[in-house]
Amino acid sequence: MEVIMARESTALWLKYIIKVSITQSVATIPEC
Questions:
Q1: What is the mean pLDDT of each successive set of 10 residues along the chain, which is 32 residues long?
Q2: 3-class SS letters over the chain
Q3: What is the pTM of this model?
Q4: Residue 26: partners with Cβ closer than 8 Å, 6 or more residues away
Q5: CA distances from 19 to 1, 2, 3, 4, 7 (A)
Q6: C-alpha count within 13 angstroms, C-beta hemisphere, residue 31
Q7: Contacts of 14 (CB under 8 A, 6+ apart)
Q8: 14 vs 32: CA distance, rounded Å
Q9: Torsion over CA: 17, 20, 23, 27 (sign)
Q10: In this structure, what are the phi and psi dihedrals at residue 13, rounded to the nearest 5 degrees?
């Protein structure tokens, strides 16, 4: 159970990091 929970949390973290990186890149495009 602990391993499954860790995998799910890692996937959520990866999705969150991807969302943040995309939003940051999109936000910096108009400035350039």
A1: 79 93 80 57
A2: CHHHHHHHHHHHHHHHHHHHHHHHHHHHHHHC
A3: 0.56
A4: none
A5: 27, 26, 24, 23, 18
A6: 5
A7: none
A8: 27
A9: negative
A10: -60, -45
